[in-house]
Amino acid sequence: MKRFTIAKPELWKSFILLTLIVTSIVQTIILWDYHPTYQAVQSETQLTTVDESLQRRADQVIIPVQAVVHDNNAVFASKNTPKQLMRVIRDSFEASEFKPLAVKNVPSFYTDINEGLELILPEAYYADTLSYMLPGTYSLSGKIPQRILIYMDDSAFNIRAIMSDQSIWEGKLTKVGNGDVNSLFLKNSSRTMKRVTYTDERVNYIPVVGPEMNELFAYDVSSIQIDTRLDWMRDTFFPGDPNVQEVDPASSVGALTNGVSVAEYDAKLNASRYRNLSRNSTERDTAIGLDSIVEFVNFHGGWVDEASENQGLSLRFDAITPANKGFETTVFRFHVKGYPVFSQREAFINNDAIDLSTLRVENDGAQVRSITRNHLEIDRLITVGTTQLADADEVLGTLINSGRFENVTEIRIGYEIEYNEDTSRYVTFSPNWFVREAGRWVPYNQGDDWTERMMYRGLE
User: Fold this and answer.
1) In a domain, 241, yes or no
2) Within this chain, do residues 144 and 291 fall inside the same structural domain, yes or no?
3) Which of 166, 181, 207 finishes a domain?
4) CB 312 within 8 A of CB 81
5) Residue 7 belongs to some domain of the structure
């Protein structure tokens, strides 16, 4: 009896310790494997129930890729984000008397500009791109704007734009709203910018001193089950169609077709492509524009889910790729915390190489032919370190000394994204300088040495 009394406290300690170990294992498994339920996008047949506040308009997805403030002979990064600037401009101004300058009177783009806001536009889709950003009654006569200057002259606001043919247009800005126009010229004094002019006359700005940026980590919390995704695609792309059938699914690939349209989903990559799915394609008699493409995406998969958007993810209009075999592709690029995201390209579901850091909409001028995208969702971004990026002179020196600069058409700071296909499905965002070289985005310091690999890949 005495021996039992002495041993009893030890038994209780062992029992408590075992309980704590089991509880810890269970909590770890839950944290590792838990995935919130995916919220399906409303289909076309449910237009009356779609929350309009969650839809996008063309003027919401087109914003400048860069904004800088001119202060006499110096140039600084803007204190405001391009999105904030666009809100002030749209709420404050209307443009008028916008017309090309006579050839004999054309100044340098920066002549007489002491204080001004310069906006570098994304590669334009159509000449009316500017009208999505600045209200007013004017026509650009088919000219495509590349850069815009908003400046003061004799206490009046003016606008100057340079077009893709290097012609210069000027106009007046009438203040019609209550926006804080003084905020347009707020500069970040700690970030001096350097203008870079490329061989095709395009211009953008890069920081003189490379910034220190966070390295980011996140789990993909989206649904990756083939059956769940096929049900979502059936409801979204083939509502009420009795002819839809599943096509010989592989171990990680599922596909649906009604004999004309095809929807494919790769669970390994958590990405999909929808082909020949144009709405009202047999009735359309006008060319597709940006408005119709934005509307198409709204009701065929939508944009970024609410949780990811709250973490700083967004899809922004990026460019229009040159027509290939009669097709044009509108590119919406992922951004994280305001920085663009880049990835390598490889074949996807036995098709051409696809950059999965983008949402791409292909059209033939009369109808949308395909959408290719991933389904990444994140509910928390974790900072796992910092990286001090190189200074501007080092970046330019690397490109010039290697003979690559003449093939470069743009330099940007952004994130390389990598996706690991193990059970936890986590992503990493690594900051770097990226250059668009021969139409392909690559890290400035790797070029051809950037080995081909998927954005979505397994552990190596």
Assistant:
1) yes
2) no
3) 207
4) no
5) no
The structure tokens listed for 273 are: 């492509």
- 197 and 240 share one domain: no
Q: Report how far residue 383's alpha carbon sits from residue 385's, in angstroms, rounded to the nearest whole number.
A: 6
Last residue of a domain, one of 182, 207, 232: 207
**How far is CA 307 from each of CA 248, 313, 379, 380, 417, rounded to the nearest angstrom?**
34, 9, 5, 8, 19
259 found inside a domain: yes
Are 182 and 84 part of one and the same domain? Answer: yes
One domain, residues 335 and 389: yes
Query: What domain range includes position 149?
Result: 58-207
C-alpha to C-alpha distance for 382 and 78, rounded to whole angstroms: 26
- Bridge-based pairing of strands 353-355 and 253-257 is unpaired
Contact yes or no for 69/76 (Cβ under 8 A): yes
Same domain, 274 and 220: yes
261 burial level (CB within 10 Å; 0-12, 13-18, 19+)? middle
Distance of CA 80 to the CA centre of its chain: 18
Contacting residues for 67 by C-beta, under 8 A, at least 6 apart = 77, 78, 80, 81, 82, 85, 117, 118, 119, 120
Q: How many domains does the chain have?
A: 2
Q: Which residues, other chains included, contact 439 with Cβ-Cβ below 8 Å and sequence gap of 6+?
A: 409
CATH number, residue 276:
3.30.310.160
Q: How far apart are CA 185 and CA 173, in angstroms?
A: 15
The reply to whether 436 falls in a domain is: yes
Distance in Å from the first CA to the final CA of the chain:
60
Cα torsion 370, 359, 410, 59: sign: positive
Read off φ and ψ for residue 109, nearest 5 degrees.
Answer: -60, -30
Whether the Cβ atoms of residue 416 and residue 427 lie closer than 8 Å to each other: no
Per-residue pLDDT of the chain (460 residues; tens, 9 = 90+): 444 444 566 676 676 677 767 666 655 554 444 443 333 333 333 333 445 667 898 888 889 999 999 998 899 999 999 989 999 999 899 999 888 988 777 788 998 888 999 999 988 766 677 888 888 888 888 888 999 999 988 788 999 999 988 899 999 999 998 888 889 999 999 999 999 999 888 899 999 999 999 999 999 998 888 888 899 889 888 888 899 999 876 778 899 999 889 998 888 878 888 887 654 444 455 678 888 899 989 988 899 988 999 999 999 999 887 666 678 889 999 999 999 999 876 555 555 556 778 999 988 887 888 898 888 999 999 999 999 999 999 999 999 999 999 999 999 999 999 887 666 788 999 999 999 988 788 899 886 655 444 333 332 2
Task: Examine the domain organization and report whether 394 and 444 are in the same domain.
Answer: yes
Residues 128, 229 within the same domain? no
